[in-house]
Amino acid sequence: MKLNSAIAAALLATTGVYADDASKVETESSSSVSVEIPTFTPTAIKAPFLEQFTEDWEKRWKPSHAKKDTKGQEEEWAYVGEWAVEEPYKYKGIEGDKGLVVKNAAAHHAISAKFPKKIDPKGKTLVVQYEVKLQKGLDCGGAYLKLLRDTKSLHQDEFSNATPYVIMFGPDKCGATNKIHFIFNHKNPKTGEYEEKHLLAAPQATISKTTELYTLIVQPNNTFTIKRGGDIVRDGSLFDQFSPAVNPEKEIDDPNDKKPEDWVDEARIPDPDAKKPDDWDEDAPFEIVDEEATKPEDWLEDEPLTIPDPEAQKPEDWDDEEDGDWVPPTVPNPKCADVSGCGPWTKPMKKNPDYKGKWTAPYIDNPAYKGVWAPRKIKNPNYFEDKHPANFEPMGAIGFELWTMQPDILFDNIYIGHSIEEAEKFANETFFKKIAVEKALEDAEKPKHEDKPKSPSDLKFLDDPVLYVKEKLDLFTTIFANDPIQAIKFVPEVPTAIGGLLVTIVALVGIFTMGGAAPEAAKKTAADAKEKVKDAKDKAAEAVSTGAENVKAEVNKRATRSQS
Fold first, then answer.
1. What is the pLDDT of residues 458-484, one digit of tens each?
2. What is the pTM of this model?
3. Which of 149, 449, 493, 543 has minimal CB crowding within 10 Å?
4. Which of 520, 486, 528, 482 is nearest to 504 (CA)?
C-alpha cells in the first residue's frame, strides 16, 4: 500500500501536478453539488415502542454476551460483534440523526431492547416499521429484526439465536438469495409446540447505500402487507401464503394402506402383436460413402497441411548436445487457406437413406390399466383449525441477532405499534425527508454518461488527477501480473514514474549524506539524477521494442523442445 502511494505521487509529479492539487480538484468536484440537509428533531409521535436512538438509548439497548446455539456443531460462536450509535458517513440525509450500527465484519452480533410493557397484538392491527442503511452494501448477511416472545426467561444478556421469537422481519442476502423475511412462530393448539411459518415467494430487499424503509402490517382479519420504501411489494393471507400451512389437512393418506400386488399402473405398453417388417434392416449404417462425390478442382493433394515456420530462427543459446537437433515449429500451410483443401483427398460420408435403426414395437393403451394408485384417505388425528393466526403471542422485546460480512449496517426510526396512520406520519417525518437528500447526494457522485471514459487510455489527467493515477496504476498492475513487457508497453507512465522515484531517492540520499558540501556538488547530483530519469525512460522504450522479440524467441525455443 505504501509503495502504491509512492508510485501514485511519482505519477502526479511526472505529469506536472502535485498531490495536494489533486485533492483540491477532488474536493471541488465533490462539493460542486449543493444539497440542503435538514436537522434532526425528535418526533412527538407516541407508540408502544418507538426508537430514534437519542442520547438515552443505552438505557434500553443491551448487547448480548451469550454464546450462539450451535447444536450438532463442534465449533462455538460468541456474540463478539460490537455496536455503536452514530450518524451515517455515507449519504447523510438528516444532520444529527443517529442510528444503531453493526461495527464488525464476519462477526456475530446480538443486541436487544425491552418494551416498556408487553405488546399484545390480539384483535389489533400490528405495524412493524424500521429503516435499514447498508453503508457498505451487502454481499452476505442479515439486516432483519426479531420481536421476542414475552417470557419470564427473557434476559437481554442471554439473547441469542435460541431465544424464542414471535416475528422475524427484514432483509437477508447472501449470494443469489435476496429476500425480505417474514416468519412467524405459530403455536399448535393441540400439542403446545411452536412451528416457524415462512412466507412463500418473499419479495426482494433493496441493496443500496441509501436508506430503505421496511414495513409489515398484519390485520386482525389474518391478512398481511409488506411495504418497501412506502410501496406495497407483497400482500396476502396468513392461511395460504406460508409454509408449512397454518392449519394442517383435514385428511391424510392412510399409512397402513398398501398397493395391491396385482395393481397395474402402466398406462401404455408395447403392442404384443406387432412384428418387425421383413425389409427392416437393423444393421444398415447411419452414414455411407458418397460415391457421387468428386475431388474439387483446386484441391492441392501434394501440399501438406502444415509447414516449418519460415520465419523461425534457431535460438542463440540452443545447445545441440543438451537440447538435441533444432527443428523449427510448424505453422498452417498458407497455400491451403484459399483452396478447398490440401493433402490426400477421400470421398466424404453422407446420410444413409436406407438407415432405420433398431426396431421396437409401437405402444398401445394398456387394457389392464387401473389408473394411478393412491392410498385411501383417513381423518388426520393431528388436525386443528386456528381461525385467528394473526393473534400472535405477546411480545416483550425487540432484538437484532445477525451475522454479516459487511459492517456499518445502520438501523433507525423503529416503530412497533397498532396505527398505520401514525407509522406513515412517522415515515413522512423521517424516511421521506432523508431519502430525497440521499438520492441527490448519490446522483451527484455518479459520473455523467457522456463524460464517462470508455477505458483508462481515454482518461485525461487534468479532468480528474486522482482517478487518472488510480486507473493507470490498476491497469499496469493487472497487465504486469500476466505479461510485464505488455504492461510497460501499454502503460509507460508507471515504469517511468517508478524510475523517476528511485532516482529522486538516490539523489536525495546523496544530497543529505554530503552534509555541508559545496552547492556545486548538490547541483551535480541533481543533474545526474535528471540524466538517470532520461535513461530510465529510454530503457523502458527499449524494453517495449525488444521485449516482444525476446518473448517470441523463447516461445520458439520451448515449442521446438516440446517437439524433439
1. 666 666 777 777 777 777 777 767 667
2. 0.61
3. 449
4. 528
